[in-house]
Amino acid sequence: MSNITGITRGGTEYTPEFIMTLDQTKCIGCGRCFKTCPRDVFDLVDRDDLDLGDDDDWDDDDGFSDDAAMVMSLKDPMDCIGCMACFKVCPKACMTHAPQPAA
Hints:
The chain is mainly beta. It has a single domain (about 5-100), classed as Alpha-Beta Plaits, CATH 3.30.70.20. Helices cover about 10% and strands about 20% of the residues. It contains 2 helices and 6 strands. It has a two-stranded antiparallel ribbon. The termini are close together.
């Protein structure tokens, strides 16, 4: 089975890579992915509302205060168009992307 492909305005074929996962233990809540995403894929949530296991898993070298810490979550990953703009602006490489088979 072949992957989903797209065509640029110039006629060049490409393979979009869609968001698969977001590692919230790496996320610093900077919001860059949220701001650059042209769709409704992300949502900023309070880190304290998440059950991510031991607090030792958090990256403490992020330069942010732990008092009101926010992290990104996947609000609607099925709305992803595979542009990977979020991946390109993420300073912590929190996301994984992959091509998807055509239906």
